[in-house]
Amino acid sequence: MGLEMAPVEAERSPEQPELQIYPLCRYYFGARDARPCAGETAADRALRLKANFAARGLRTRGGPTYTQPVSQDTGIALGHRDNFVLGPPLLRTCVHGVLLVELSGHPHVLLLQVRNSSFLLPGGRLRPAEQDVQGLKRKLSSKLAAADPNGDHHWQIGECIGMWWRSEFEARPVPYPPPSTRAPKECVKLFLVRLPMARQFVVPRNLKLLAVPLSQIHDNAQVYGPIISGIPNLLSKFSFNVVRN
Amino acid sequence: MGLEMAPVEAERSPEQPELQIYPLCRYYFGARDARPCAGETAADRALRLKANFAARGLRTRGGPTYTQPVSQDTGIALGHRDNFVLGPPLLRTCVHGVLLVELSGHPHVLLLQVRNSSFLLPGGRLRPAEQDVQGLKRKLSSKLAAADPNGDHHWQIGECIGMWWRSEFEARPVPYPPPSTRAPKECVKLFLVRLPMARQFVVPRNLKLLAVPLSQIHDNAQVYGPIISGIPNLLSKFSFNVVRN
């Protein structure tokens, strides 16, 4: 239109939460040595999880880990009624962080890329009896901070913005407990991570850290997978406030 | 597996919000006379909105409505710098309600269907200077309750769970302010509507009210459109609590 106009924004309802984001140039990005066993394929992953599941059983919080017998005929785990009734929820749980920065006036999500192909959110699997927030802090430190086992990297973990379930380890995740099964194998939780005005990211050399615009991620499950491509939708209730000074 | 097991559910984090839903059989569904001018096509809609935009200008909250001059050559509205700087946000705003019921142990969303084809969320356009919550209550009453202009139908409007924008009236909506334009034409806000344990829905005869499972809506933009098909993702952070008694 050739005319310079003040930006026209949606009105912020009183209850609409605000999210402060800072320009990408506020952050420093460095590299460190790669961690062993990083960068497995999807097929490797499914095999490893099935082997763990059969050998070590499922995780329980604050209780013992039960070994689940596997049917000789079908390879399907046979539920022991007592185990399920006794224990707290039995489920592989992963926690991931959604970290946002601003570039060209548009919010970008920080994603890790493995071998120039698949994209990951920083995060990973909880240890037995580990709390969501504690586990996510540990995973963010291992993927995004200098290697310092005693370092407190001051991650500010915000609310859980979404959850996805897998009925089987190879299954496509869905954003609700799968109605076809009463025992989903995996749950993936996404947490908002509020970044400070400035910080240092130190990433293992076998991974690349990229800032990807919401507009590129949205509706692009083919490249980013269903969980990441749904993030712009999960963030849409927030009013982004870009802080430049 | 042949064994009866206690359901295995994801652990609810302390901060994970709970959402009570009630079985579909708790609700009564009736019909009433159709409203005039309901059920236009997408092309009709775009034409109507463009005509309104050119003739009556954009909505401002609590202020005057400016008429925006339209270029004779292109038909594109010419922004008046002073209008934009002067006024509060200028944008067509629609509000929609997400109403949930339980059926077969799985959450279902209440959708309106027009002429056996397109699906809609109950809701509609805000009037000039109308607040989101007030406008949504008015729209829910007009689409889902007995025709009673003075009736207070006790809608309990919860939080805004998502927002979508259109850069042009025919454009595909996106869940972030479109980076390509500083003046999006439309904003669509989705609010959670908490249903009581029982209530009556009275729907105009030209619309059908359907309860559609999350698993059918998810990732099915071809049938339900991008906004509705993203609802399961928006709801995934909630822990559903089905209340039967």
Total number of beta strands of chain A: 11
Structural class of chain A: alpha/beta
Q: What is the CATH fold-level name of the domain at 18-36 and 91-242 in chain A?
A: Nucleoside Triphosphate Pyrophosphohydrolase
Principal-axis shape of chain A equals globular
Helix amount of chain A: 10-25%
Alpha plus pi helix count of chain A: 6
Q: Which residues of chain A form runs of ≥5 with pLDDT under 50?
A: 1-10, 58-89
Question: In angstroms, what separates the terminal alpha carbons of chain A?
Answer: 30 Å
Order of helices and strands of chain A: EEHHEEEEHEEEEHHHE
Major pleated sheet of chain A: 7 strands, mixed
Highest-level CATH class of the domain at 18-36 and 91-242 in chain A: Alpha Beta
Name the assembly state: homodimer
Radius of gyration of chain A: 20 Å
Can you tell me the CATH architecture of the domain at 18-36 and 91-242 in chain A? Alpha-Beta Complex
Strand content of chain A: 25-35%
- Integer average pLDDT of chain A: 80
Greatest interface by residues involved: A-B, 62 and 62 residues
Q: Could you give me the name of the CATH homologous superfamily of the domain at 18-36 and 91-242 in chain A? A: Nucleoside Triphosphate Pyrophosphohydrolase
Subcellular location (chains A, B): Nucleus
Main location (chains A, B): nucleus
Protein name (chains A, B): Pre-mRNA cleavage factor Im 25 kDa subunit
GO molecular function, one term (chains A, B): mRNA 3'-UTR AU-rich region binding
